[in-house]
UniProtKB/TrEMBL annotation, chain A:
Residues 21-40 bind DNA. It comes from Pisciglobus halotolerans. SUPFAM superfamilies: C-terminal domain of transcriptional repressors, Class II aaRS and biotin synthetases, Winged helix' DNA-binding domain. The gene is birA. Acts both as a biotin--[acetyl-CoA-carboxylase] ligase and a repressor. GO terms for cellular component: cytoplasm. One of its GO terms (molecular function) is ATP binding. The lineage of its organism: Bacteria, Bacillati, Bacillota, Bacilli, Lactobacillales. This is Bifunctional ligase/repressor BirA. InterPro entries: aa-tRNA-synth_II/BPL/LPL, Bifunct_BirA, Biotin_CoA_COase_ligase, BPL_C, BPL_LPL_catalytic, HTH_11, Transcriptional_repressor_C, WH-like_DNA-bd_sf. Residues 67-259 form the BPL/LPL catalytic domain.
From TrEMBL, chain B:
CDD domains: biotinyl_domain. Keywords: Biotin, Fatty acid biosynthesis, Fatty acid metabolism, Lipid biosynthesis, Lipid metabolism. InterPro entries: AcCoA_biotinCC, Biotin_BS, Biotin_Carboxyl_Carrier/Decarb, Biotin_lipoyl, Single_hybrid_motif. It holds the Pfam family Biotin_lipoyl. It comes from Pisciglobus halotolerans. Residues 35-54 have a biased composition (Basic and acidic residues). This is Biotin carboxyl carrier protein of acetyl-CoA carboxylase. GO terms for biological process: fatty acid biosynthetic process. This protein is a component of the acetyl coenzyme A carboxylase complex; first, biotin carboxylase catalyzes the carboxylation of the carrier protein and then the transcarboxylase transfers the carboxyl group to form malonyl-CoA. Residues 57-70 have a biased composition (Polar residues).
Length: 325, 164
């Protein structure tokens, strides 16, 4: 860990206390000059470290800025890789590049404050403004062939669980794994499978999660009526570090038990499209029907307008909010 | 067993992961299969082909991958010109899903007939359950055939491209 991260971790562990530069220097086996430089650097990055003359330093509240030093102690399971970027093209692209360099990663976590090329399905833009959202990619080793699809469904449940544990909000799921709150999309999950050319099997799975945490200014017009955020303009003490750690911890638990389909019951309860009229394309044809249930592989069972039953396993659906089937 | 029951059964099987279903009771025999004829043929043939004639060196090395040679596809038909046939490598779909030939609808296709391909280059994306799987080429060469159209649903092992 870098000096700066060590200092930040120490201050976080002693949150609210005034810590002298000497105390930190002694405990972290660093010089007072290094401590002073680290504090300056943290303040420049926006961490609210107070300098109290002749006494020392204090971190009054948990920092919202994403930081490896703060995230790591909150994780139940230590990853092989954890990187936090101030800005990046896309965390999923960075994850792919990482897998190219290091093919065997049991678990990797890449988190960014901002994405300049955040993307969703079929190259669509995922607006990822600086510091108001949580953009992360989790790399999991694919244990079984069926895991990739299960993991993407489980990820939606994990994000819901994390939000409900830390806040009083109750997001709902739109099949496959978009999260909505008060009729607006607050989270998108894009999963990518990494195929092994030799064996033709999916070796690793990258779960990209984009969560809008707070109200963002300057939202492109095309998204203004569609996207929302978890807290909006509401004041909150919940930090993005906490959210990130809780989502990761929740998904780790689900990942270990993907062969059991218990999480699908939870998924069904949270899936707001069931019982609703849904629209989708098949072979470029517009189709519609009533969403009946989610099968044990996460497929959406739809009763078509002509009475036929169809299970969707790819593509996406759209719904008209407020319309009942 | 009446028509309504068969209909109900069909719906249940359709929603399940079962690929095939056989039922024999009273005087009724019901057989359902989600395996397309095409796919079964493809699965069965490589074995036959291996026994029939030894494959050229280049083909054998590609056996454990998602690319297969012409011989393996044509299977039983012994070819008069094995050298010529071996030039083509088939890229097959490792999963059931929907194929996308371009990174986004507004962008040009990853690869089209006549394009050069290097090892590791993305040829298409196959999506299943919102998991996007980039299909990369294991060989270098020229795309000589594209077997699927954009947004086409593909079966396991279905040929996607031919690279020569």
């Amino acid at each position: 860990m870098k000096t700066k991260e060590k200092v930040l971790q120490y201050l976080t562990q002693h949150k609210g206390e005034v810590i002298s530069g000497q105390e930190m220097a002694d405990n972290l086996a660093l010089s007072r000059t290094s401590i002073w430089k680290a504090i300056r650097s943290l303040q420049t990055e926006g961490f609210k470290v107070e300098s109290i003359t002749n006494k020392g330093y204090r971190l009054a509240t948990d920092p919202d800025q994403l930081s490896k030093a703060i995230l790591l102690p909150m994780l139940n399971e230590q990853p092989d890789v954890l990187e936090v970027y101030p800005t990046i093209g896309s965390t999923n692209d960075a994850a792919k590049a990482l897998i190219n360099e290091r093919p065997i990663i049991h678990k990797g976590i890449l988190v960014a404050e901002e994405q300049t090329k955040g993307r969703g399905r079929l190259g669509r833009q995922f607006y990822s403004p600086n510091q108001t959202g949580l953009y992360m990619s989790l790399i999991y080793q694919n244990k079984q062939a069926a895991n990739a699809a299960a993991l993407t469904t489980a990820a939606a449940v994990a994000v819901c669980r994390a939000i409900e544990k830390l806040t009083n909000k109750q997001p709902v799921i739109k099949w496959v794994n978009d999260l909505f709150l008060d009729g607006r999309k607050i989270c998108g999950i894009l999963t990518e499978g990494i195929l092994n050319l030799e064996t033709g099997t999916i070796d690793s799975v990258i779960v990209g999660i984009g969560l809008n945490v707070r109200h963002a200014e300057m939202v492109p017009e095309a998204f203004q009526s569609i996207i929302g955020s978890l807290f909006g303009k509401e004041e909150t003490t919940v930090t993005r570090n906490q959210l990130a750690a809780e989502i990761i911890n929740q998904l780790d638990v689900l990942y270990e038990a993907l062969d059991q389909t218990d999480y699908l019951d939870e998924y069904r309860k949270r899936c707001f499209v069931l019982g609703q009229k849904v629209y989708f394309n098949e072979k470029k044809q517009n189709m519609s029907g009533i969403a009946e249930t989610i099968d044990d592989e996460g497929g959406l069972v739809v009763k078509l307008d002509n009475g036929q039953i169809k299970t969707l396993r790819y593509g996406e659906i759209s719904i008209k909010l407020g319309e009942k089937g | 067993m009446d028509f309504a029951q068969i209909k109900e059964l069909l719906a249940l099987v359709d929603q399940s992961t079962l690929r095939e279903f056989h039922l024999q009771m009273d005087h009724v025999v019901v057989q359902m299969s989600k395996n397309s004829h095409e796919m079964r043929k493809d699965e069965a043939e490589p074995l036959t082909a291996e026994r029939k004639a030894p494959l050229p060196e280049s083909t054998q090395s590609a056996k454990a991958s998602n690319t297969f040679s012409n011989e393996e596809i044509k299977g039983l038909v012994p070819t008069s010109n094995p050298e010529g046939e071996a030039e083509g490598e088939y890229v097959r779909s490792p999963i059931v899903g929907v194929a996308y030939l371009s990174p986004s609808p507004d962008e040009p296709a990853f690869k089209k007939v006549g394009d050069q391909v290097a090892v590791g280059e993305t040829l298409c994306i196959i999506e299943a359950m919102k998991v996007m799987n980039e299909i990369k080429s294991e060989v270098s060469g020229t795309i000589t055939e594209v077997f699927v159209t954009d947004e086409q649903v593909v079966e396991y092992h279905q040929p996607l491209f031919r690279i020569s």
